[in-house]
Amino acid sequence: MIYFDNSATTQPYPEALRSYQEVATKIFGNPSSLHGLGDQATRLLEASRKQIAQLLGKSAEEIFFTSGGTESDNWAIKGLAFEKAPYGKHIIVSDIEHPAVKESAKWLATQGFEVSYAPVDSRGFVDVKQLAGLLRPDTILVSVMAVNNEIGSVQPIQAISKILANRPTISFHVDAVQAIGKIPTASYLTDRVDFASFSGHKFHAVRGVGFLYKKVSKRISPLLTGGGQEKSLRSTTENLAGIAAMAKALRLTLDKEELALPRIAAMKAVIYDELSKYPDIRVFSEIGQDFAPNILTFGIKGVRGEVVVHAFEEHQIYISTTSACSSKAGKPAGTLISMGVPTKEAQTAVRISLDDDNDMSQVEQFLTIFKQVYEKTKKVR
């Protein structure tokens, strides 16, 4: 089996799974309980929080645990909107955001908020000047992802941070779900970023756990109310085993980053160079610093993406039709549409997403099978 769908989810590290099992078995107390088992659970919870914060260069009081990226995004967008509603109701999100952000913004539009969408250029990057032109006195939030999940374009978070530097009343949220272990932390978690969303299963933790970074000086309304966990901002019994496993996975991922990224980028470059030789192939992603080293999206002229996905699956090679969250809905890649790619062409898009678990022998096998798939589609092309 060759797994090239790591942007959808990663295989948990064995070390993270061992941590999960050990904590679930031995430290099963509720952190909110007053007895010794509860105290033991609380100590591990706070140790995990501290480790995650230190790895990101932040303080422990700025890390809030969630169920994953979608909840973190929903909480950031909705929580900020309602917290700051007395000061304004204008929100800006980029036109290529993940549905967790975009659909949250659309819902807010039904609740009396006004949403503007910052456009992107033909390469999939937010147009910083046009975003600046959308800013108004009543703007309370700007949300832009760090790494686009469909084509891998690294968004200009630092440039946007500079634009917002003298606008302290505007909160800046970054969806960093695809960024961990793929681009330097400093490139997207700038001093101007107030909130950032993360999902554990994107960096070899287990599913169902993530976290939200909230700058200590910023306020946000709770998304979940109840027992008062997470400083009364996110009430529900903490997924302690998942949190401990996530802290372990984050450390392992960042420890490997320096050696892993050049390997991943080299694999992507080989695939990119080979696919670029075919006449009926359009490669939507690019190689270089402006694009994540792990994501490569392409299309075969006239062949729908799902057909290509299943053709590779017959050979036990697993890729996806861009965003996993939209693939079963049969929607074309929204990022490509925003870039001006015609709908029929966008419907051909498939995404390869690599990881340190992959190697060059798998790349060679993929390219061998690709040649066969390409030949079989000759009549359609």
Automatic annotation (TrEMBL):
InterPro entries: Aminotrans_V_dom (IPR000192), Aminotrans_V_PyrdxlP_BS (IPR020578), Cysteine_dSase (IPR016454), PyrdxlP-dep_Trfase (IPR015424), PyrdxlP-dep_Trfase_major (IPR015421), PyrdxlP-dep_Trfase_small (IPR015422). Its EC number is 4.4.1.-. Its cofactor is pyridoxal 5'-phosphate. The keyword Iron applies. The keyword Isomerase does not apply. Gene3D superfamilies: 1.10.260.50, Aspartate Aminotransferase, domain 1 (3.90.1150.10), Type I PLP-dependent aspartate aminotransferase-like (Major domain) (3.40.640.10). It is an enzyme of class 4 (lyase). Residues 2-366 form the Aminotransferase class V domain. GO terms for molecular function: cysteine desulfurase activity; iron-sulfur cluster binding; lyase activity; metal ion binding. Keywords: Iron, Iron-sulfur, Lyase, Metal-binding, Pyridoxal phosphate. Belongs to the class-V pyridoxal-phosphate-dependent aminotransferase family. NifS/IscS subfamily. PANTHER family: CYSTEINE DESULFURASE ISCS 2-RELATED (PTHR11601:SF50), CYSTEINE DESULFURYLASE FAMILY MEMBER (PTHR11601). This is Cysteine desulfurase. The lineage of its organism: Bacteria, Bacillati, Bacillota, Bacilli, Lactobacillales.
